[in-house]
Amino acid sequence: MTEYNAENWDLMVLEISKKFKVTADFDFMLFLIGIQELGQGMKPYERQEKMDLINLGKCTLLSREGYLKANGPDEEGWPQFEEVKRLKSLTPSFLNHVLKKSAFEYLKIQLQ
Which among 6, 15, 59, 66 has a CA at the least distance from the CA of 37? Predict the structure, then answer.
C-alpha cells in the first residue's frame, strides 16, 4: 500500500474495518482523522460531535493540501482553519479525490 489508487484505498478501508470492527466508509476515515487531530482519543461521542470530528478531518486534510491554514485552537480546544485557496472553485468529484488521496497518505502513516 505505497501509493494512492482505488485498489489501495479499498485495501486500507478493509484494514481499518478489521482493526476497529466496523464497516468503515469515507466518513469513518474522516472521523478517525478528526479524533487523531483533536487528541482526546476514542470515546463515546454525541451525534453533533461526530459530525464536528468528520469536519475536522476534512479541514485537516485540506490544510495538508494547502487549501486551508490552521489558526490554532478555539476556546474549547478545537482547531480553527481559514481558507487559503478557493474551495468553491473545486468540483465535488475533484474535492473528493483530493480528500481521499490526502486521507490515504495521512492514514498510511498512522497505520505504520
Answer: 59
Host H or E run for residue 19: helix 6-20
> For the whole model, what pTM was predicted?
0.92
How many Cα atoms are found within 13 Å in the side-chain-facing hemisphere of 80?
Answer: 7
CA dihedral sign of residues 47, 33, 90, 92:
negative
pLDDT at 83: 96
Q: Which three cell numbers stand for residue 48?
A: 453533533
Report the candidate in 32, 40, 97 with the shortest Cα–Cα distance to residue 60. Answer: 32
Q: What is the DSSP letter of 89?
A: T
Could you give the CA distance from residue 19 to residue 21 in angstroms, rounded to a whole number?
A: 6
